[in-house]
Amino acid sequence: MPSTASSAPERPRPWPRTCKPDNGVTLIEEARDGSDPGAPLRSGQNGAMWECDGFADLLPSSVEVVQVDGDCGVLQPAWPEEAVSVESAVLRRQVEFVTTRECARRALQRLGFSPGPIPVGTHREPVWPRDVVGSLTHGADLHAAAVALKPQYRAVGIDAEPNTGLPEGTLDLIGSTAERLALVSLESSWPAVAWDRLLFSAKEAIFKVWFPLTGHWLDYRECTLSIDPVTGTFTGRLLLDGESRSRFRISSIEGRWGISGNRLLTAVALPEQATQYRRSRVARAARASSTA
Ligand SMILES: CC(C)(COP(=O)(O)OP(=O)(O)OC[C@H]1O[C@@H](n2cnc3c(N)ncnc32)[C@H](O)[C@@H]1OP(=O)(O)O)[C@@H](O)C(=O)NCCC(=O)NCCS
């Protein structure tokens, strides 16, 4: 039985850029230039900053990222805790599930964890080792995992989408009038980017940060997104009462985006200092009664 991934993290030796694990999968370890957060993106048209090589360009170097183009081929989940989640799934789903979790185990290993299962939580969220936050994505023929250590990071969220427009009608469901107007302006200046898809992707990356922090659903309309085409960043302003749903105060979540080939990538790494613990109601009540 493999050991679980819960031992105290110890910095491992650096991995080679490209490594071939026992199962024959070639995982591309993304290049790092040591800058933080992420490497500066290359300029696109009109001075916009959007070209990147992968998620590692969008995230701080203390967030470990492993991504693979294509997939692992047909493999069975290595752990029963994982297998139970996909045993009746179609082959394609099994392949994406295994490939993404292989990426995650690789990334966790770089944080010092030995291989272990990453089960599926009750709301489909990946269940990480206790001291870890992380996120998975599979889309646009890409599989990726990003993981980081608590408490340095509160949450990580990544999402990959094809750089193609959303199906008709979708934008009306996920974007406000103000967001849609902003996209019109972006589209006229930078038509090479599928801005509606980028809006969607950024909101999904935000959700992957929001949910593990709060345990609550977040609707697309409960977050207003603004995208900066020049800095390659985005900000999601949360329209709901985040305080009532979380141990943390969160009113906005910032992330970075880029284009890698024909894919749009969005990533959020929420550092500890971006969130504050809110005072518990019990503590507030106690303080109020002691001063009364
Ligand atoms: C969960 C969701 C974000 C996944 O995004 P997606 O583009 O469909 O798929 P991706 O490949 O990028 O990501 C899938 C991974 O997300 C992760 N995920 C699923 N539910 C999650 C949750 N509640 N919290 C965190 N991560 C979750 C899983 O790891 C999943 O992969 P797996 O099933 O193989 O383990 C999306 O399906 C969804 O339900 N969105 C609605 C909520 C939302 O985005 N609101 C916007 C708020 S502004």
From TrEMBL:
UniProt keyword list: Magnesium, Metal-binding, Transferase
UniProt cross-references to Pfam families, sorted A to Z: 4PPT_N, ACPS
Occurrences of domain 4'-phosphopantetheinyl transferase N-terminal (ranges): 82-148
Cofactor(s) required, per the database record: Mg(2+)
InterPro entries: 4-PPantetheinyl_Trfase_dom, 4-PPantetheinyl_Trfase_dom_sf, 4PPT_N, Enbac_synth_compD-like
Residues at which Mg(2+) binds: 159-161
The UniProt record lists the keyword Transferase: yes
GO cellular component: enterobactin synthetase complex; plasma membrane
Region of interest (Disordered), ranges: 1-23
GO terms under biological process: enterobactin biosynthetic process
Superkingdom per UniProt: Bacteria
Domain 4'-phosphopantetheinyl transferase: 155-245
Gene Ontology terms for molecular function: holo-[acyl-carrier-protein] synthase activity; magnesium ion binding
Residue sites binding CoA per the record: 93, 101, 137-138, 159, 204, 208, 218
Protein name per the record: 4'-phosphopantetheinyl transferase EntD (Siderophore biosynthesis)
